[in-house]
Design goal:
It is a single chain. The protein is of the alpha+beta class and 71 residues long. It contains one helix and four strands. The protein has one helix at 39-55, and strands at residues 2-9, 13-20, 27-28, 59-64. A four-stranded mixed beta sheet has the order 3-2-1-4, with helices on one face. A hairpin with a 6-residue loop joins strand 2 and strand 3 (27-28). The longest helix has 17 residues, at 39-55. It is globular.
Amino acid sequence: MYHIKTTYHPSGRFTCMERHENESMWRDLRGELFGNPNTAGFYNAVSQYVEKLRSVGLLASFDDLASRVEE
């Protein structure tokens, strides 16, 4: 099972991270999920990844921290 979270950097870039349920460290995901300045492209990639994990029963949690950032 995987825990997924999104983060936002003040530079304007979004990153999606994952952690296996028995691990303590988060890992940055690659491709459009890492350091992406394009909000729409980032969330499209996140949506696809989360749905992929959910469809095979591997999604433990999803926390969209990036959307909670106050501008």
